[in-house]
From TrEMBL:
It comes from Microbulbifer harenosus. Residues 4-120 form the CENP-V/GFA domain. Belongs to the Gfa family. It comes from the Bacteria. This is GFA family protein. Keywords: Lyase, Metal-binding, Zinc. SUPFAM superfamilies: Mss4-like.
């Protein structure tokens, strides 16, 4: 297990992740492009492994799947930090750029690659998925 820490731009929100990410991917969906003006690198972590200190605001929208997605961000500096889907509340998406050491994770895939702009630099060594992949499997134990 590897502990990771992160924070928003102004430092008002800090967090700790106490388990390794289930996966790390670059997302090129149009929503992520609106958030970052580019693709976003995202960790998927067990929700219970994320410990947050500080106040967050949220924005809820409906995904193409019909799931409700809650995106959480710092109310002071606007840094987008986390996202949760109503379809998979046991997982939280964490924006890798908010980690103290973003190099501590490496993406394994580009997702929603079909939505990437023509100028996007997609690493050809990563798996390419044109849309949303299947959700991560959970332990049945």
């Amino acid at each position: 297990m590897s502990e990771r820490n992160g924070n928003c731009l102004c430092g008002a929100v800090k967090y700790q992740i106490t388990e390794d990410p289930i996966m790390t991917r670059v997302c090129w969906c149009r929503t992520c492009q609106h958030i970052a003006a580019n693709g976003t690198v995202n960790l998927v972590v067990p929700s219970e492994a994320l410990h947050i200190n500080g106040e967050l605001n949220s924005y809820v929208s409906t995904a193409d799947s019909g799931s409700q997605v809650t995106r959480r961000f710092c109310p002071a500096c606007g840094s987008h930090l986390f996202a949760n889907s109503s379809a998979r509340p046991q997982f939280t998406v964490v924006r890798a750029g908010t980690l103290e050491d973003p190099s501590s994770v490496k993406p394994s895939a580009n997702i929603w690659a079909a939505s990437a702009p023509g100028w996007a630099c997609l690493d050809p060594t990563l798996e390419r998925l044109d849309q949303q992949p299947l959700p991560p499997r959970t332990s049945t134990a």
